[in-house]
Amino acid sequence: MRHRHSDYMLWAKTQSRVKFNLATSGVASFPLRELPVTIEQLEINGDSTYGYAPLQQAIAKKCGVDPDCVVAAAGTSMANHLAMAALFDPGDEVLLEQPTYELLTSTLLYLGAKVKRFSRSEESGYTLEPAEVRRAITSKTKLIVLTNLHNPSSVLASDATLRGVGELARSVGAHVLVDEVYLDAVYVDTPKPSIHLGPEFIVTSSLTKVYGLSGLRCGWILAQPDLARAMWRLNDLFASIPAHPAELLSVIALENLDQIRQRARRIVEADRVLLGEFLARHQFVSTPRTGFGTTAILRLLNGEVEDFRARLRTEQETSVVPGRFFELPNHFRIGMGVDTEMFREGLRRITKVLDTAPK
Ligand SMILES: Cc1ncc(COP(=O)(O)O)c(C=O)c1O
Predict the structure, then answer these.
(1) In testing the pocket of ligand 1, which one of 16, 76, 177, 325 has its CB within 8 Å of the most ligand atoms?
(2) pLDDT digit string, tens, across residues 319-329
């Protein structure tokens, strides 16, 4: 039977919302009233065929590429789906990092990939290691898929490491798909999109997680022009024409991106300080420390995560993401950048449950 669902998405859409929601991955919603836009700037229908030219140019400028390398898509989710669908055929071998974001696995399975894994082990702090890719790659590999920042850990892979993976891909004629939806949460010396590392790299990203603009669904793929054209053609089978008001708003958002990013940065950074204090106090959890990102994956050193989560939810109205969605059953993921008071209170409630957990 073909894989046709995502267990994580079902959970996220139906189970994650409680008063103290630490099961988030993106920052607080950016309010429309703070975008410098008037109703006169909006229109229902527009001149969008294979992209809306002003949006193509704005994304290209942000990413430092030619507009011919940009394929617009509804969020990073659709960007991933479209890119994958264009990059391999059913039955082809695809390498995927482990642990990873569940929707990448589900989408690869839906598209009929023969999925092989390479490890980003907890012991190594979830770092991306070309040696692990080398161990898994074969002459049949068509695509290597990874996240940067890594979801769930927020660990950053350096350009040198990515280049190492790119060389391996090139040696067998494969591509590397890097989901960079969290990359702009590196607020200092933000790395350039990895398409700049070589023609084998394909990038997906959006204005959702780091900018609080999820509702615009402004996502994109960066690829070499021939591949980008093939993806546009394939998109005719999926989404055809996007919602034009969202395109217009996305252009305005892209013109004001720095201010939008700074707004969330303050919350993310305040939350990270609280997380650091929390981790320093607790011997019951462990996690690699990162200087950026909106998520952290914590290992529970005592007790069962499902018991812990159930108590957290029923007794403390607090939610965290179960690690099983990342193939890490002894772990849970928490999110930063929404509301520092909520985050502080959520951590306090986690502490209450940890302090009364079976030792
Ligand atoms: C790695 C990764 N990629 C893509 C997405 C989805 O992004 P978007 O909301 O832009 O579709 C998520 C959401 O959690 C994610 O974690």
Answers:
(1) 76
(2) 999 999 999 99
